[in-house]
Amino acid sequence: MFENLTVQPEDQILKLTGMFRADPRTDKIDLGVGVYRNAAGQTPVMRAIKKAEQQLWNSETTKAYTALAGDPAFHQAITDLLLGDAADPSRLAAVASVGGTGALRIAMELVRLANPQATVWVPSPTWPNHLPIARHVGLKLAEYRYFDSETGGVDFGAMMQDLGRVAPGDIVLLHGCCHNPTGANLTLPEWDSVAEIVTRQAAIPLIDIAYQGFGDGLQADAAGTRLIASRCPEALIASSCSKNFGIYRERTGLLLAVTPNTAMRDIAQGNMATLNRVNFSFPPDHGARLVTMVLTDPALRAEWTAELEEVRLSMLSLRESLADALRARTGSDRFGFLAQHRGMFSRLGATSEQVETLREKHGVYMVGDSRINIAGLNASSVPVLADAIAATGI
Ligand code: PMP
Fold first, then answer.
1. Same domain, 224 and 182
2. Is residue 99 part of a domain?
3. Alpha carbon nearest to ligand 1 atom 7, residue
């Protein structure tokens, strides 16, 4: 049997991490993998999570299974955080998942069960894992234009043109906020037009939201998702707690389905629980429980919100200082988009040769498409990076 297997392509980002580790230079800069790092280069356990863990250790009396859909209190806590009162609860189905990736996987399997002919439309570019997940579950893929590499912003005209070609029943994948890898995001009026066009085409939006609170704040980052949930008759929302709660390895996420009515909600709910059952049975609970505790305890929630805001503002200030440093070195505002982008990532717009030069000559590691992790920077590495970018002639 095993002789039939072929070698899988190496994950480019993990490969980059290996190369970075092997580089003996002490002034090297890692802007690769998408993990938040503070000014000291660490990915800390958030204060409120640590406290919740202590409380849980004291109060937890069993580790017996929860439910196939996970804990209803977790569904409620994330639904409140994400949607506020934007969606009618009687139309919502929810299952806890194995991280945001697990939510995407269950979402795509649900689509395949409901409509195996559906095409999944993803932005160009998108988080690389979207493509193999859709292919692996046997769905067709198509890309819509999204990023304008000339301006560093969204090419909204092209995006709308492409969404005009989407067929009824197709899935339109949208990044809820902090687009990965580009950092370029839709404005609220643009979300409005997207809601209108997907509804007109009878397509179903699938929102991937993995960075709520990393962009313009917890409420602002959810605004597009809320608009879709309130306006579209059907939608899927895959939410990740990995980044904004700093619990990457706990694998915590939620899949929400906005359905047309309560009867369809019940059917969707049963199908989603069944998909959990055949994939891994019960979803992980530890991270979900911590998140629920943090969101429902006013003191823990205030502490979490404050720390998340520190994280957000530190990334914003790094963005501004990098844009300023590049303005000073290039004498132009070509990199002004860095201060406009939101979230952990921006795409610099360098060629693959320039990305290689940055790595080999300057010890600056970024993904081959020139995506940089802003949180990999600190006050002392910003000028070093700006010098390297200017010297490479990007
Ligand atoms: N979607 C996007 C856009 C992401 O960037 C990520 C994490 N890199 C995820 C989903 C999945 O996150 P996780 O499975 O770690 O919760």
1. yes
2. yes
3. 210
- Dihedral pair phi/psi, residue 260, rounded to 5°: -70, -30
Q: Per residue in 200-240, pLDDT tens? A: 999 999 999 999 999 999 999 999 999 999 999 999 999 99
Q: What percent of the chain has a predicted confidence (pLDDT) above 90? A: 96
- Number of structural domains, the chain? 2
Query: In terms of domains, do 199 and 341 share one?
Result: no
CA distance 361 to 364: 8
Q: Tens digit of pLDDT for each residue in 148-167?
A: 999 999 999 999 999 999 99
**71 and 37 together in one domain:** no
Task: Please tell me which residue in 208, 238, 288, 386 is annotated as part of the active site.
Answer: 208
The residue whose CA has the least distance to atom 1 of ligand 1 is: 210
The catalytic position among 77, 87, 103, 127 is: 127
Task: State whether 74 and 122 are in the same domain.
Answer: yes
Q: Is residue 53 part of a domain?
A: no
pLDDT band for position 14 (cuts 50, 70, 90)? confident
- Report in angstroms the alpha-carbon separations of 110 from 62, 103, 200, 216: 32, 10, 22, 31
- pTM score, whole prediction: 0.97
The full length of the chain comes to 394
Q: In 3D, which of 50, 125, 74 has the Cα closest to residue 253?
A: 74
Q: What is the DSSP letter of 283?
A: P
Catalytic residue among 94, 243, 339, 386: 243
385 CA → ligand 1 middle, Å: 26
- Whether 302 is in a domain gets the answer no
Q: Is the dihedral of CA 185, 239, 78, 316 positive or negative?
A: negative
Helix spans in 217-297 (H): 218-231, 262-279, 286-296
Is 325 a catalytic site residue?
A: no
Rounded to the nearest angstrom, the distance between the alpha carbon of 263 and the centre of ligand 1 is 31
Ligand 1, from 242, 244, 374: best to mutate by most atoms within 8 Å of Cβ?
A: 242
Tell me how many degrees the CA angle 322-325-327 measures, rounded to the nearest 5: 110
Q: Is-catalytic flag, 243?
A: yes
- Let me know the angle formed at the C-alpha of 222 by 191 and 348, rounded to the nearest 5 degrees: 70
By residue range, what is the domain housing residue 386? 10-45+312-392
* CATH number, domain with residue 321: 3.90.1150.10
